[in-house]
Design brief:
Elements lengths: L25 H6 L13 H10 L11 H23 L5 H11 L6 E3 L6 E3 L6 H16 L6 E3 L6 E3 L12 H21 L18
Antiparallel strand pairs: 1-2, 3-4
Helix pairs in contact: 3-4, 3-5, 4-5
Protein name: Putative Zn-ribbon protein
Pfam families: ABATE, zf-CGNR
Amino acid sequence: MTRSVAAEPTPMRTTARSRPVDTGSLCLDLVATRTPGGPDLLTATAGAAAWLGTFDLPTPAAGLTSRDLDRIQELRAAVDRLVQARLAGTGPDPEDVGHLNTCAAAPTPTSFLRGDAWARIEVPQPDLAGVLSVLARDAVHLLTTSEPSRLRSCEGCGLAFYDRSPSGGRRWCSMKRCGERTASANYRRRHADADNGGAPDGQPTHASSQQFG
């Protein structure tokens, strides 16, 4: 009996890979293919195929098409809006829900274990529907079965992530991307205040001003 990769009871854990952020969830990694101030990884078929390969998600047997790019971008936009609504504590948009559910309804890709080696056999996918189903089902799990308080927005750039840290106190999409950037900005601000004698906007303090009799 085969087991679908989308049958997890919680959002799929994504391990450290070569990407700018670790969102903690596959569907949020989809949203993070377009980061604030960064490149969009899904604007070309080659980039989309490379991103899918990062997560061992198959591409269609005939290769990705421009329509496939539109479909994955449409799902990304719907997931992004639904996540933002969840973070804001508002209700979901029915059109986004319908789109997500339609994508989730398709059968997910299947792979088998070979009988003569520790390797798997991939079943060719006729189109992108199976991969979109994996991503959509993960979004359903994230939005309904995860711990709501651990779904957060990065305090630096606003990118959504799912906090899997033991303490539950994560604040950044990535410490290197936003955490260190914010820490550096705070450090410069503190030193600028110290250089100004603690006065705002560079104004001299009373102690440093000249007194005339």
